[in-house]
Amino acid sequence: MGVTILGIESSCDDTSAALLRDEYLLSNVISGQEVHRNYGGVVPELASRAHQQHIIPVVDQAFREAGVSREDVDGVAFTQGPGLLGSLMVGTSFAKSFALSQGIPLIGVNHLQAHILAHFIRDTEAEEDESPRFPFLCLLVSGGHTQLTVVRSHLDMEIIGETIDDAAGEAFDKSGKIMDLPYPAGPIIDKHARMGNPHAFEFTRPKIEGLDYSFSGLKTAFLYFLRDQVKQDRDFIENHFNDLCASLQHTIIDILMDKFIRAAKQTNVREIGIAGGVSANSGLKQAVHQAAGRYGWRVHIPRFEYTMDNAAMIAMTGYYKYLRGEFTGIDAVPQARFKY
Ligand code: KG4
Ligand code: ZN
Fold this sequence. Notes:
By secondary structure, the chain is an alpha/beta fold. The chain folds into 2 domains: 4-121 and 306-323, ATPase, nucleotide binding domain (Nucleotidyltransferase, domain 5), CATH 3.30.420.40; 136-301, 2-Layer Sandwich (Nucleotidyltransferase, domain 5). Helix content is 43%, strand content 18%. It has 11 helices and 10 strands. The chain has helices spanning 44-66, 85-102, 111-117, 168-178, 186-193, 216-232, 236-239, 241-267, 282-295, 304-307, 312-323, and strands at residues 4-9, 15-21, 24-31, 75-81, 106-110, 136-141, 146-153, 156-162, 271-275, 298-300. The strands form 2 sheets. A 5-stranded mixed beta sheet has the order 3-2-1-4-5, with helices on both faces. A hairpin with a 4-residue loop joins β6 (136-141) and β7. It is globular and about 65 Å long. The model has no long low-confidence stretch (mean pLDDT 95). The structure holds 5'-O-[(R)-(carboxyoxy)(hydroxy)phosphoryl]adenosine and zinc ion. Residues 12, 142-144, 169, 172-173, 184-187, 190, 276-278, 280-281, 308-309 line the site of 5'-O-[(R)-(carboxyoxy)(hydroxy)phosphoryl]adenosine.
């Protein structure tokens, strides 16, 4: 029998548990948290409390769906960071107790590395292995991070560019908040952008050296632009909603793609991936496919349920660490800022 890993994710506002046998996923249960919708972002204290309520039922369901018993598990992988401390604490405590009670190794996982390794999750034995070949270049775009990473092997990654302020997901969510949209605004903007003109409004692009990103200027420009327009037309946002979404999304994607293409040229890598919640964006996917045609890239985009926060990617990363014997002591503590 292969190696069976239980994965636990609780870094932000999704509680998730997954079971994996070798590279094959047996179950992946994700429970979101509705409580944050009207706050314009995740409220840490509420998130931590919701994780405590969800963790046991979510793990139970993951075992039921996978059809394996607790005794079958060889190692328990959990998100050690980065993330919200109170949220991470819930998953960490659960993972520790599980490992202790079963007498199996504990494996601390970096959440960002896991988003990238989501590319290697396989669903069924019949599925052909279309995972990226090394080295591959991955743009990780989520609510908390925006990074360009060269992946040389499963556990050998180098960040070659990252945001110096807001993440791409924040650019969506904070601009959405300015338009009074609930959190997270990204998927709503994506939906309405499809019905709008991406060139209706122009927003300035940041001028940042090298391969780093910046999104806070765009958010401010968007705020001032709307403030001026609303002075003249109280219903400006309502009247131009689709065009605003399309133009904003177009600008974010342009900023992302500019450095992404530059990074691919500089590193001479053509195996290309995107990961993280924002990689579900239809405009970004389209832009990546367009660039692929132009530059001869081989593109990898994980399935939607593996791009958002999920435990399948944590279990996948745990599996590779298990094979290398990279275990974590039972005295492990969660790390709000966790570098790899
Ligand atoms: O990876 P993720 O689930 O959580 C973090 O680790 O942050 O990413 C969540 C982010 C949110 O900012 C959300 O607005 C964004 O992903 N997002 C999208 C879309 N779906 C999710 N942004 C743009 N378009 C989408 N379709
Ligand atoms: Zn994430």
